[in-house]
Write a structure and sequence with these properties.
Blueprint lengths: L3 H21 L27 H12 L1 H10 L8 H7 L13 H9 L3 H4 E4 L5 E2 L3 E8 L4 E7 L3 H22 L1 H5 L2 H16 L1 H14 L20 E5 L4 E2 L3 H6 L4 H19 L1 E3 L7 E3 L5 E3 L5 E3 L2 H15 L3 H11 L2 E2 L4 H17 L7 H14 L2 E2 L2 H20 L5 H17 L1 H35 L8 H33 L7 E2 L2 E2 H22 L3
Antiparallel strand pairs: 1-3, 2-3, 3-4, 4-5, 6-8, 7-10, 8-9, 11-12, 13-14
Protein name: AarF/ABC1/UbiB kinase family protein
Family: Belongs to the protein kinase superfamily. ADCK protein kinase family.
Organism: Sphingobacterium micropteri
Length: 548
């Protein structure tokens, strides 16, 4: 159990350091009135006079890992912060000088092993160093090369105290700034804290690696790393070594004799598979986290933070893609409302107009000239202007798509990203129109209807009671009513087609015993009924997807 007193002592120490750094970079105004500001005596100020945004970035870098990572999180939120500040935040690097660690005794203490029995060799100098962990190369006793990821000593204590300070800062800003309340910085910090705590746990990262490897079992285009469970705990992670080059290393790829377009296609396919099929995707697919092996397979690294979607989230995302392809502003807005964790739209006509402008942006540019980053930036701005906050996995997904597109354009400057994604959109449509999916959707709608009917008496009773008590308020939104009317007409048409489809299927089953010419053991009349039934089911699905 954590000691609250100890946490407060650590928080006070970190607050003193924070104060010193804010003064050093000229942010005394944040510390109160001039008479209460700390003295700058003895504090070395930067030799130049950088802009305010540069000073913010320099201060964040000096404040350490928690603030650097929070700055990196905000760097992908063009919808919240000024463009020049975003430019500076994108310069934040999660690289710090390596810490002196007597690695062999440390490994033995952490894992409770005799290192010489498990390892043939452990290199004492790290091959990479970041804010949370350092990475070492080692060789197992059987000669297998591995990677050892070692958590920095006391890093959890530092991050916990930093999070306490960040919560206080965000609370203070939210109390005194309407803008901060509108962008819901508290929610952003809460999701960041959850992600950072997960990243601190190597047990959690090991579980992510195992799940990722299981998801891609049997897929030839990817080389998944795997863990050595007996050599892992919450502070030490032992994973397989991957021979390869960074995905954007053109010279390295040419040395392997690999085709750039093949690598781009594989990268997009693997990332979209994670999103659309697994609902479990790499949250930071930057070039340093993707290697290419000599035989052209891709290998993802660093599984501390992963994006997760429930099956319902994946269905809604598919609905979003279909509505966008159909340029259906009404349906798109309806889906955005379903996806959002917070929404307070003041003028629906304005947001629909902005969505139509987004459609125009996609239509008026040739596919190869579409700037995906600018496109998503405009979409993010629409959300911000209309007080809409999406779930964290949406922002992670957008960031992932932008990073993957950036990798693609670096290898293929003329990359047509939309053309590359089109087959996956077609795959979504085919899946939605498949007989199995139509069957499941029909069953789900029947169950929803049953639940609605079974709850109707209680709902009506509740409404009657509220009417008697005089506390029933009815609010009518004409825009929503029009949408509901269109949806009602669409549902009626869809339900008729579903009913006819089911009727012909039943008819085909009823005549299956009739003596007549058969194909594959089934009477030809049954085949005719089945085909007519399938036609009506497909028609029902098409009507449910059509533009109003």
């Amino acid at each position: 159990m954590e000691n609250p007193f100890k946490n407060q002592v650590l928080k006070l120490r970190r607050t003193a350091k924070l104060t010193q750094i804010l003064v050093k970079y000229g942010f005394q105004d944040l510390l109160g009135s001039p008479s209460k500001r700390p003295s700058t005596e003895g504090i070395s100020l930067p030799p130049t006079d950088p802009t305010v945004y540069e000073r913010i970035r320099l201060a964040i870098e000096e404040l350490g890992p928690t603030f650097v990572k929070f700055g990196q999180t905000l760097s992908s939120r063009e919808d919240l912060l000024p463009a020049l500040l975003i430019v500076e935040l994108k310069k934040l690097q999660d690289r710090v000088p390596p810490q002196e660690i007597d690695i062999v005794p440390y490994i033995e203490e952490q894992l409770g092993i005799n290192a010489s029995e498990s390892f043939r060799e452990i290199e004492t100098e790290p091959i990479a160093s970041a804010s949370i962990a350092q990475v070492y190369k080692a060789v197992l006793a059987d000669g297998t090369p591995v990677i050892l990821k070692i958590k920095r000593p006391n890093i959890r204590t530092t991050i916990n105290s930093d999070l306490l300070i960040l919560r206080d800062i965000v609370q203070f800003l939210s109390d005194y700034s309407l803008t901060i309340r509108q962008i819901n910085l508290k929610y952003i910090l809460a999701t960041f804290q959850k992600t950072l705590v997960e990243e601190l746990s190597f047990v959690h990262e090991a579980q992510n690696i195992v799940q990722f490897e299981q998801n891609f079992r049997g897929v030839d285009k990817i080389h998944c790393i795997h863990t050595y469970e007996e050599l892992c705990n919450d502070d030490v992670l032992c994973v397989s070594w991957i021979d390869g080059v960074k995905i954007t290393d053109k010279d390295g790829l040419l040395t392997y004799g690999l085709n750039f377009e093949h690598i781009v296609d594989s990268g997009l396919e693997l990332f979209l598979t994670q999103v659309l099929e697994h609902g479990f995707f790499h949250a930071d697919p930057h070039p340093g986290n993707i290697l290419v092996t000599p035989d052209g397979k891709l290998s993802f690294l660093d599984f501390g933070a992963m994006g997760r979607m429930l099956l319902s989230d994946q269905v809604i995302l598919e609905d979003f893609i279909i509505a966008f392809i159909n340029k259906d502003a009404d349906s798109l807005l309806y889906i955005i409302k379903k996806m959002a964790v917070y929404i307070q739209i003041e003028n629906e006509k304005n947001i629909k107009r902005e969505i139509l402008e987004l459609f125009d942006m996609a239509s008026t540019n040739t596919l190869e000239n579409i700037d995906i980053k600018a496109f998503f930036s405009k979409f993010s701005n629409i959300l911000y202007q209309n007080n809409i906050i999406m779930p964290e996995h949406i922002y992670l997904l957008v960031r992932g798509v932008v990073l993957m597109e950036g990798i693609g354009r670096e290898l293929m400057p003329g990359l047509n990203i939309v053309e590359k994604i089109e087959p996956y959109i077609e795959q979504i449509i085919r899946k939605r129109l498949s007989f199995e999916n139509l069957k499941k959707e029909s069953q789900r709608k029947l169950m929803d209807s049953y639940q609605l009917l079974s709850q109707a008496p209680y709902t009506l009773k509740n409404i009657a009671q509220r009417l008697e008590q005089g506390d029933l308020t009815v609010k009518v939104d004409n825009t929503d009513l029009q949408h509901l009317q269109r949806q009602y007409r669409k549902n009626q048409s869809t339900n008729r087609s579903l009913a006819l489809g089911c009727l012909f299927f039943v008819s085909g089953c009823l005549v299956i015993s009739v003596e007549q010419y058969r194909i594959l053991g089934i009477p030809i009349l049954s085949w005719i009924f089945f085909l007519i039934g399938i036609s009506f089911l497909i028609l029902a699905k098409l009507r449910s997807l059509r533009i109003d």
